[in-house]
Design a protein that fits this description.
With 171 residues, the chain is mainly alpha-helical. It contains 8 helices and 2 strands. It has a domain of 77 residues. Strands 1-2 form a two-stranded antiparallel ribbon. It starts with 17 loop residues before the first helix and ends in a 17-residue tail after the last helix.
């Protein structure tokens, strides 16, 4: 049975990266073109992810990173001084960053925020008011007289005659 190979997952990036990914890094001695896409594939990198990562960097940092990658390409350009020039040219082909990347929020594992909230005078006052309200409702419900049936409220005796007097029999 033949082994199945997984295709690399292409990130959700659009055609704005095509100019960068298909740009020529170098023309080899045999006349073959080496594109950014093929160079990254030779290094077993995901070209789309690398392009997205480079776009998130400043132009200077992206050029440094790309020059380092170009120098590591198997069969790539051998002139080390040329790597910086090539990288600077290629970084200009990356799409401009259109969104602001915010740093991640710090993860808190302690309860200092809860303690600070509990020590807040406003929260304390709300808590005390809620407790007072619950106690007041409990007190009023305990001291309220139970509802009386309608006959008892009028002070009359039961309308039903005792010992069969309603039947008209007398002894």
């Amino acid at each position: 049975m033949a082994e199945l190979t997984r295709a690399a997952r292409m990130p959700d990036i659009g055609p704005e990266y095509n100019a960068f990914l298909y740009a020529t890094i170098d023309t080899g001695s045999s006349g073959t073109l080496l594109s950014v896409l093929s160079a990254m594939a030779r290094m077993n990198l995901d070209p789309w992810q690398e392009a997205a990562d480079l776009t998130a960097l400043s132009a200077k940092a992206a050029a440094r990173r790309l020059a380092t990658l170009i120098s590591a390409v198997p069969g790539g350009p051998s002139d080390a001084a040329n790597h910086d020039v090539i990288a600077a040219r290629l970084v200009k082909l990356l799409p401009k960053q259109t969104r602001v990347i915010l740093p991640p929020l710090p993860q808190r594992t302690d309860f200092t925020d809860i303690r600070a909230l509990a020590q807040s005078p406003m929260v304390r006052n709300i808590l005390f008011a809620a407790i007072a309200l619950v106690l007041a409702v409990m007190w009023f419900s305990a001291h309220q007289t139970p509802a009386q049936p309608p006959d008892a409220a009028q002070g009359s005796v039961s309308a039903r005659p005792a010992n069969g007097a309603a039947n008209g029999s007398h002894n």
